[in-house]
Amino acid sequence: MIYHEVLVVGGGLAGLRAAIEAHDAGCEVAVLSRVHPVRSHSVAAQGGVNAALGNHPDASDDNPERHAFDTVKGSDYLADQDAVEILTGEAPGRIYEMEHWGCPFSRTSDGKIAQRPFGGAGYPRCCYAADKTGHALLHTMFEQTLKRGLRIYEEWQVVSLAVADGRCHGVIALDMRTGKLEAVGAGAVVFGTGGAGRIYARSTNNIINTGSGMAIAYMAGVPLKDMEFIQFHPTSLFGNNVLMTEGARGEGGYLRNALGERFMEKYAPKAMELGPRDIVARAIQTEINEGRGFPGGYVQLDLTHLGAEKILERLPAIRDIAINFTGVDPIKEPIPIQPGQHYFMGGIDTDADGVTEVAGFYAAGECSCVSVHGANRLGGNSLLETIVFGRRAGLHASTYVKGEGGARAKAGSEKVLAKVMADTEKRVIWVLEADGPEDPAGLRDELRESMFRNVGLFREEKGMLEGLDKVRELRGRYPRIGIRNRGRRYNLDWARNLELEGMILVAEAIAAGALARKESRGSHFRTDYKERDDQNFLKHTIARLTDDGPRLEYRPVTITRWEPQARTY
Amino acid sequence: MNGAGGIWGWLLQRVAAAGLVVVLGIHLYVLHFAGEHAVLTKAGVSERLGEVGYIIVDVALLGLVLYHALYGLRSVILDYTTRESAVRAWTVGLWVVGLAMFGLGVLALVPFING
Amino acid sequence: MSIEMKQRPEKIRLNVYRFDPEVDKAPRIDSFDVPWVDGMTVLDTLFYVLEKRDGSLAFRYSCREGICGACAMYINGSHRLACETQVARLLDEGHAEVRVMPLPHLPVIKDLVVDMTRFWENYEAIAPWIVTRSADPEKEHLQSPEDRKLVDEYVGCILCGSCFSSCPSVWTGKEYLGPNALMKTWRWVADTRDSAAEERLGLVGNERGAWRCHTVFNCVEACPKDINQTTAIQGLKRRTVGAMLRGSKALKAGRKALER
Fold first, then answer.
1. Of A540, A558, A475, which is closest to residue A227 (Cα–Cα)?
2. What is the mean pLDDT of residues C65-72?
3. Last residue of a domain, which of C85, C114, C143?
4. What pTM, to 2 d.p., does this model score?
């Protein structure tokens, strides 16, 4: 049996950062990833990463405390403030560290890391590498894993988590190239498996973002937190919903409706285009819904006044994307955009060290919920979250492994893995042999459309009930799916439909959480409860999987210094 | 293969190329444009090779062409293997061939010079 | 660059390379008719086949926006990213059908999925991480925007393998580092924050490295991110010669000096 002291699942920023930290703390570490690490979704992040460095002339008095306040206000006061202070307090150190590791940040004229304004932020504190910041960070992080010679299992897809008596002993994974199930024992397992954007239609996410990590943890008894909070990015390309960075507005881009109006003055008169994402996304959708959009349902992101030089220097990637997919050159014409699903504020319930309810099981990055984003994440805080909490999870995991926890996990792992393997094999082989009448691709499309329509930007009870019914119907139909390919090697039909069950379960947790939260807060906006209700809902939703679907519990929000106030921009 | 292997060879090929441009230019000019020797005759060639400058040009041309071409050939061969023993064998072999041909070429000039 | 709006066919013929080395004696081409959808990319057509026609088709994908590098393939005779290549563009180029092959000259694992082991090993062999000799500053290293520009082109690489697959010296020379690893070496040599430039030159200024580049420019043609690898490699040659003429000791140290 394969055994590693610390096993990291996911080769994106959070996973690699955790792996590096655990290695540097003296542990033997391996990374297991469904794609080669540089193909992970972190690579697609564009605009930047926040840290109060004060490098911008307008930000000389910025500090982590101001960053924390902006984050808390952006979260609509649902973020745990102690965790937010860790996030913003450690931010400068982590950014300097990435720079010391060679990350090619863009530069100010005096040679410092360049920073740009971003939505919901009081100061320009978003560090960037043109509009390819995620790419720059992920490639740098990958270089550091190569430097340390970490073992990487490439194109291995985890299918279950081995948990017994509240302790994690490893995972069962499918090696795509051989089609074999492998038991991988571990002293500690860290999930950095990313979001579940592909549960939604119109997602900006990589195709691989199916939330499989969340689902696997959820099925193994680990609760999910705040799943109803789904971020819709204001500006995704009309047509295929590829992200058009918030940095485009940070650099001075305008949003215009079909009447040519800069409509944000109605919704956020002070912040205008740089309001937080939930508010800007709803503003755009309102314009479209009320007939002031363009035919087909979009508005325009206008960069033409920025000039060719600025666009070529700071936004070259989105220009290429716009030209490539829509034939629009942003230097000459406005870009057609619409809101698209972008990010999961919720995820596997963890604390600020990535610790979950299960000993030896950790999570960091988008798959986790600490919570630092609360009900709405600020742009530039997700890349930050990966490097801050990835490191902390890796550190805690290494301490755990070196203590008696690791020894206990190792002692029990063979037996536990054998049992979990037997159960997993049944399920996995069942999918490989499934020959029912239901087309799984159709199920997936129905799920995505229903979630976007019923549990999307604007929510109300009737729609959410429909959404929940739909999820339950799909859950009932899943056992009757049929797949077309019975070969084992690199069988995408098999691998993709194995995780469909998890997508449905996660969707159910989202819909149930949303339905129960009878208020509007951040990204969770209900037309039937338009106001925030701190009396009843200033609390985190915790969803546990039972045979009858999710069972919801609540947990208070940690408030240290900022009492909830009205949220205006 | 560590260290500075191949740098001199590569640099010399570039230098040889530059040198070739010069001596090849002289060679072509003398042969085709200088006019006096429209028809090649032994006497004419002998007369030209009476001058030390022309001897230098011709010997240089021979040496540079051989180095440049054989280094190029070595490059093509090395595309198929960079095993150190093979590289050494080919390099030595090509040097032997090159030096032999250079010697032969210089010998061929002797009758004209003594003309 | 823009795609013209014009009358399109109702369906398009997709010809795909199929080969499972553990089952098939020889590769074959399978053809599928894919219903036309405006804006459809080659990656979309592959998903159509996977989901509606033949679940055994294997290919790599991830970001579908040209930044992750997973879906580099050989499409209608050129190296391209399947996700960035609109079928309409292929038609506008004069192709009547879509033809998708795996990256040439790499071992096939299954269908369009190739074994990139050698590519990754070569990348790792050039020590593609920053090396600094002095302690890190308290804040960031300072680097002027002009100095940052020196690496801009090269840090845009998405490690898709197109250049590597297109290079004749890679096809024949099994030990050749290839255009990607060399370009990435230049990325660090050119980075003002790195202090191991001459050791790096020593690592690649040899018969396995820069001297194997015959300036064929296939890599430049193949690169979906418009990186000029050949210029970078010429830079390596120039700098290596300069270091040698100055009698650099670091040049000789090469790989040893870059040990982890």
1. A540
2. 97
3. C114
4. 0.95
